[in-house]
Amino acid sequence: INADGSVGFIADEIFHKGIGSVAERNFRPHISWSAFTPDEELLCVCDPGIDQIKLYEFNHVTGKLKLYDIIRSQQESAPRQIEFSRDGKYILTAINAEHKVDVISTANWKLVNSIPVGRNPHIVLPMPDGKTAWVTSEGDNKIVKIHLDSMKVISEIPVFGFPRVMTATPDGKF
Questions:
Q1: Measured CA angle at 42 (ends 41, 43), to 5 deg
Q2: What value does the CA radius of gyration of the chain take, rounded to a whole number of Å?
Q3: What pTM did the predictor assign?
Q4: Residue 91: helix, strand or coil by DSSP?
């Protein structure tokens, strides 16, 4: 990104390889989401086509990426989107084909828990309170609130249509 906010040159390119496990969905490697770790040292990339989240070291000077680790989801699970908990201890991952949110520790990149949230979770939105997150469930037309301490669903709100995108005010009230 240039100083004026415009897009600069391409500093690096990474191509995921392989054939995913489910021919009925978009089975080729494809990126659905990316996010930096809170310290901005790693770039985390969701690839539902190969059922993986790849972690890349990011060089802030050159813009180059280097593979650091791979979080392998269950075959045919389709990890869709990731967000970090407010305290940075967890990655919250919408696992689309398995209808859950996986909670992964950032201390060791291992699965801590899986929370069933309804069919086809699309977006996970950690709230400013640091204790809860909302999840869209496209297949069940609802949004689900999970508590990060108990790692359980604590409420559900039915909505019209397929909830895909959501956001919250900075205070988390709306």
A1: 130
A2: 16
A3: 0.86
A4: strand
What three-state secondary structure class fits 119? Answer: coil
Which residue type is seen at 85? S
Per DSSP, 107 falls in state: T
Query: Own/partner pairs for 38-47, CB < 8 Å, 24+ apart?
Result: 38/84, 38/88, 39/88, 42/68, 44/82, 44/91, 46/79, 46/80, 46/81, 46/82, 46/93, 47/16, 47/79
Q: Cβ distance 81 to 102 under 8 Å?
A: no
Q: Which of 9, 64, 50, 56 is nearest to 34 (CA)?
A: 56
Measured in whole angstroms, the distance separating CA 96 from the mean position of its chain's CA atoms is 10
Return per-residue pLDDT of the chain as tens, 174 residues. Answer: 788 989 888 888 888 887 655 555 556 788 899 999 999 999 999 999 889 999 999 998 999 999 999 999 988 888 999 999 999 999 999 999 999 999 999 999 999 999 999 999 999 999 999 999 999 999 999 999 999 999 999 999 999 888 888 888 888 877
Structure tokens at 151: 């790692």
- Measured between alpha carbons, how far is 63 from 22 in angstroms, rounded to an integer? 33
The set of residues, in sequence order, having a beta carbon less than 8 Å from that of 5 and lying 6+ positions away, is none
